[in-house]
Amino acid sequence: MKSLRIVFMGTPEFAVATLGALLMNGFNVVGVVTTPDKPAGRGRKIKKSPVKEFAEFSYLPLLQPEKLDDPDFVEAIKKLNPDVILVVAFRKLPEQIWKIPPLGTINLHASLLPNYRGAAPINHAIINGESVTGLTTFLIDESIDTGKILLQEKVHIYPHENAGDLSARMMKLGARLVIKTLEGLANNSIIPVPQSTLLNQVEKPRSAPKIRPSDCIIDWTKDCISIYNLVRGLAPDPCARSYINGPGGNFLFKIYECRPEETNHSLHPGEIITDGKSYLKIACGKGLLKVCTIQAEGRKKMSIDEFLRGFNIQNYKISSNPPA
């Protein structure tokens, strides 16, 4: 089993836990593939991916192709002679790549497939108010997240957990599931299951597309629980956001932490309740949203009492739309 030749493909921090688990469990990682270095941040300095940093630290052979269908890259993978390609949070692979290893190309996905296929399953599960999600290892095929399932594990979502918290837990659980999957493939104890056999005939599986900037704007006509889940599902990045409009100007702000208050009121969505010192509540279509941590445009992230000490918000209103 430990003699399996594995090529690992991944980019973000989420993938590093699995790569580390492979090495700690004595698996033979013959190559690592990640994205090319790219400029990031305000200074636009060239930045390595977390997977590249870990691979270099571990002295692993590294490939960073611009295009995955480049003939030289395809040939380089063939020369590594992998028994398995393992993919965690990477790009869609062309057929000439995922068909190379005899045992198949395995993907770790952060949902219970076929539910939440797509690029942002953790975010969408929280946004939709799920209390349970999970992890799936499956064999990659020609479509996105549709291949035969190998193993799955349920993961509970805690009531006040945000996307960053859940991702941190799931990357460790996912690494463990990958090790179980490789062990099962090596001893022929896993029978791949077509996703069609798991499809609920009544309820259509939800999707998890990439988060767009427009998805981050809060609609204050919605109820406080829905808005609370949106904030959780987008924290700590890219964050749910809205606009403050008033006599001193109009600007964007992000909400990192909040609490819903299911209470009756006669306010219009976006109206503010505050003492100007220690609390800020925003009226929703139903209930109120108590803001705990906020970041105004051009300022640092701060607690709500810090924010109120430096900004008189009394005559302002919250809006879902930018100023005209």
Write the layout of secondary structure elements.
Layout: E1 5-10, H1 13-24, E2 28-33, E3 38-40, E4 45-47, H2 50-57, E5 62-63, H3 71-80, E6 84-88, H4 95-98, E7 105-109, H5 121-127, E8 132-139, E9 149-156, H6 163-186, H7 224-234, E10 240-246, E11 249-261, E12 272-274, E13 280-283, E14 288-296, E15 302-303, H8 304-310, E16 317-319
Parallel strand pairs: 1-2, 1-6, 2-5, 6-7
Antiparallel strand pairs: 3-4, 7-8, 8-9, 10-11, 10-16, 11-14, 12-13, 13-14, 14-15
Describe it.
With 324 residues, this protein is an alpha+beta fold. It has two domains: 5-197, Formyl transferase, N-terminal domain (Rossmann fold); 213-319, Formyl transferase, C-terminal domain (Methionyl-tRNA Fmet Formyltransferase, Chain A, domain 2). It is built from eight helices and 16 strands. It has helices at residues 13-24, 50-57, 71-80, 95-98, 121-127, 163-186, 224-234, 304-310; strands at 5-10, 28-33, 38-40, 45-47, 62-63, 84-88, 105-109, 132-139, 149-156, 240-246, 249-261, 272-274, 280-283, 288-296, 302-303, 317-319. The chain has a seven-stranded mixed β-sheet with strand order 5-2-1-6-7-8-9, sandwiched between helices. Strand 10 and strand 11 form a beta hairpin. The longest helix is centred in the middle third of the chain and has 24 residues, at 163-186. The chain is elongated, with a radius of gyration of 23 Å.
